[in-house]
Design goal:
By secondary structure, the protein is of the alpha+beta class. It has two domains: 2-82; 105-331, Bira Bifunctional Protein, Domain 2 (BirA Bifunctional Protein, domain 2, 2-Layer Sandwich), CATH 3.30.930.10. It is 41% helix and 23% strand. It has helices at 2-14, 20-31, 37-45, 50-87, 104-117, 132-135, 169-178, 219-234, 279-284, 301-309, 322-325, and strands spanning 122-124, 129-131, 155-156, 159-164, 183-192, 204-214, 239-246, 249-260, 266-277, 293-300. The strands form two sheets. It has a seven-stranded mixed sheet with strand order 1-5-6-10-9-8-7, sandwiched between helices. It has a three-stranded antiparallel sheet with strand order 2-4-3. β8 and β9 form a beta hairpin. It binds phenylalanine (PHE).
């Protein structure tokens, strides 16, 4: 019986219908009510002893399923199309497909990538789940630094070494460790901080991280790069550099943009942190800080969105309200 089964199995496996008659013949051959091969086998089975009946019963049932599948597949592949063509009225108007729009954050992300591509920055991405070393230690953030605070950082698996990255500066470390300068790199992605959700802050937001390392990179290169970005995004707009502090840059600055909102309120809005990469950070990733220097910056994408779209409540960006999202059409 085994051999017989194998032969049947092969035949089912390699069957391919050319016409609908072929397919009907195949069905009758195996499942025909009177003389179908499988129908007969089911009849023969009744004469077998009980223990054999169980085993062969299952095998025959599986074969039956295979035949039915084969019929189904051949039917939809070869014949449904033809039937559809017959039923199809070519004068009927087409069904228009609604074209979606990109999320506003994706639109800004694509614009920034394009702006930096023009001045030779390549684009990379890094993981959102990080370890302490890439997110903090290698960036010269000491163990008692407030940004490591339990209240700011989401740790995973109750393990203080695995966390959701709090900034995209961790990508600097990953890239610098694997590549030798000179390079110019941009990375954009989500970052996480344990903050209460309000119109101004969220536990998840996006950052764009840029960094450039070469011989003789100076603060004026950083300034020019930032000015080029702001001009490309906003045209003519007032900006200012304010001295600041980050453990991984020295000197450090924050950049504010002068804005005017829909109620004609004006003021300075901080949009990024930046600075010259601290030589200690370069040493941590085995880049010779005597030969090379570099700058880095981290931009808050939602902050740019406030300026570009004049929508001040950042919660709206993540509500997934289709009426809000529909409004964003873009070439990108
Ligand atoms: N990582 C900093 C932050 O999240 C921003 C920054 C990036 C500052 C690069 C300096 C250089 O606030």
């Amino acid at each position: 019986m085994d051999k017989k089964m194998d032969k049947i199995k092969e035949e089912i496996k390699f069957f391919q219908a050319q016409t609908s008659e072929d397919l009907e013949r195949f069905r009758i051959k195996f499942l025909g009510k009177k003389k179908g091969i499988l129908t007969m086998l089911f009849k023969e089975l009744k004469k077998e002893p009980i223990h054999k009946r169980k085993i062969f019963g299952k095998i025959i049932n599986d074969l039956k399923k295979k035949v039915q599948e084969k019929i189904q597949r051949n039917h939809s592949r070869y014949f449904m199309k033809n039937e559809n063509i017959l039923n199809f009225d070519p004068t009927m108007p087409g069904i228009s497909i609604e074209i979606g729009s990109l999320h506003p954050i994706s639109i800004i992300k694509n614009r920034i990538i394009e702006i930096f591509r023009k001045i030779g920055f390549s684009y990379v991405e890094g993981p959102e789940i990080e370890d302490d070393w890439h997110n903090f230690t290698a960036l010269n953030i000491p163990i008692d630094h407030p940004s490591r605070d339990m209240q700011d950082t989401f740790f995973l698996y109750k393990n203080p070494d695995i966390l959701l990255r709090t900034h995209t500066s961790s990508v600097q470390i990953r890239y610098m460790k694997e590549n030798s300068p000179p390079f110019r790199v941009l990375s954009i992605g989500k970052v996480y901080r344990n903050e209460t959700i309000s119109s101004r802050s969220h536990f998840m937001f996006h950052q764009a991280e840029g960094f450039s390392i070469d011989k003789k990179v100076s603060f004026s290169d950083l300034k020019q790069t930032i000015q080029y970005l702001i001009k490309s995004l906003f045209g003519k707009i007032k900006i200012r550099f304010r001295p600041s502090y980050f453990p991984f840059t020295e000197p450090s600055a924050e950049v504010d943009v002068y804005y005017c909102d829909h109620n004609n309120n004006t003021g300075w809005l901080e949009i990024m942190g930046c600075g010259m990469i601290d030589p200690k950070v370069l040493n941590n990733v085995n880049i010779d800080s005597e030969t090379y220097s570099g700058f880095a910056f981290g931009i808050g994408i939602e902050r740019l969105a406030i300026l570009i779209y004049k929508i001040h409540d950042i919660r709206i960006y993540f509500d997934n309200d289709i009426r809000f999202l529909r409004q964003f059409k873009s070439d990108f």
